Amino acid sequence: MKHTHRLREAIDALYSRGAATSESYTRLLLQCVRSNDVVQAKRLHTHMDLYLYQPNDTFLQNRLLHLYGKSGNLSDARDLFDKMPRRDIFSWNAMLAAYSKSGKVEDLRAVFDQMSAHDAVSYNTVIAGFSGNGCSSQALEFFVRMQEEGFEPTDYTHVSALHACSQLLDIMRGKQIHGRIVATSLGENIFVWNALTNLYAKCGALDQARWLFDRMIHKNVVSWNSMISGYLQNGQPETCIELFCEMQSLGLKPDQVTVSNILSAYFQCGHIDEACKTFSEIKEKDKICWTTMIVGCAQNGKEEDALLIFRKMLLENVRPDSFTISSVVSSCARLASLCQGQAVHGKAVILGVDNDLLVSSALVDMYSKCGETAYAWLVFKWMSTRNVVSWNSMIVGYAQNGKDLEALALYEEMLHENLKPDNITFVGVLSACMHVGLVERGEEYFHSISKIHGMSPTFDHYSCLINLLGRAGYMDKAVDLINSMTFEPNCLIWSTLLSICRIRCDVNNGEMAARHLFELDPHNAGPYIMLSNIYATCGRWKDVASVRSFMKNNKIKKFAAYSWIEIDSQVHKFIAEDRTHSETEQIYEELNRLIKKLQESGFTPDTNLVLHDVVEEEKLDSISYHSEKLALAFWLIKKPHGRTPIRIMKNIRVCGDCHVFMKFVSKIIGRPIILRDMNRFHHFVEGRCSCKDIW
Fold it and tell me: What pTM did the predictor assign?
């Protein structure tokens, strides 16, 4: 600070005196270069221009060029370069370095092509510039040209060329460079060793990478990072963690890259607590560490934690990028949290990343999964560019929200735009066909997967078509489709058939599907419950008792069904006949009042859906207090006069009685209800549902 002050005072004095000598300019400029003070250097440069000073050689101007380029003042560097009466190889190399640092690769090449002669520094600068800015093929092209012009590559050149090979995953070219290095003596240059280790690790040749790593005499943190990230990228997170522990035992301090890789490894192994512990121990967290934690939590079903970490990230004044924002938006989508999703959308607008392809696609998905297809469409409509992920988000969003014909129309528009659909596209398209019962059209789309688009149908595609055929009454065709599959049907296929059999009371096919599921996943309670429900619907109570007795004896427990709502950023969760809520008395009072009002309007609870052999009064009590009804009552207590839709989420399929109940309520209270169950969204408006009673 003291030195900077003196330098400023010296240049102030220069302005007060007028013209200066060549020695004064040289002395002061060298001080600016040594202290990396570009502000005072520009003042000195202005003084030279003011008094029309022209140096006898290029020394001063070249020094100034290097300083401008190093500090990112590209326009000042270019302006000085263009005004120089004489330029030498150092002047041209300084401009190459300036463009390389700023990432202006097109200008970098243009300047190189304008040079009448090159030296090894020119080539090294261009190769490093291309390699460091993602133009790996051009870097290797100039690596060859360099040798053709008779210049010998240095260690610095080899590092840049190997980095380019790593980016291209071109292990063959990398091996050729490796051979050249060995032939000219590998030596002990740690940068070359690290570049070779990184090349083999990134290309999946872990044995060769480890061979080099183990023989390094002086490993630094970059050496360890290359090997750790190599194991992580090649699906060996356990080995990655072991190497990290070894690194710590040697007393080496990890950097931000190491920590991000280890956090990812912990998450891949499911060691969430270890990841959180490691993250909490980091004193200075960069954007990559924060994003790794957010993505890791989201991918491991910890969406609430991901949102909390995002809030802390903002409080620490760390600026999130588009990848961070898209990950947080995806967490909001999985939670169906419209309130938080809109808040993150607002943050994306403030940060200027809302038009980023990754963010926009995530926003379309989020609004769709919150039941707001109108908002999803607005985001989709205003996207400047779209990829298949964007189109999929909108098509699947329409299909999930009862806008099935819109989904199919959008698919045809996607084809018209010459975009190739993928597996997810066809899940949305076939789901739309299933919801509106378009059997022939659904079969056409299914067969087009292989015949037109050159893909193989997946389990998801077969499941959609089986569902479509079964719901339309073509049970024999559905079973024949399963038997014609070229691979063994999995749990999804048999579960789909079993759920259709439950709807159609098809005992024979239901028992067949259940037997397969018992073999594939004997401890999953779902198939036992569905088979029991089929028996109960048919009045076969002995078979019901037999199934439930088997479950009890084998300790097969069903998971609890529950519903949840979000009011004023607070999540409230309910189970059937729940009496644990702090406002239980008011909830039941409100629900009973609502039931009475609905019965006066013609609603009759469907006790046939109670699959227990009990008296009618018990059936009525059982069906009246399902979790989604309790959630609805609580919402009406808290927001009795609101105009916005009532939003309820449920973790299993909504039952028929609750479905009818919600239709009646939407008409009686004059408010839309959006209920998301495990299958789709139900938009209840004025006594009608968007699913048209098919779900």
Answer: 0.78
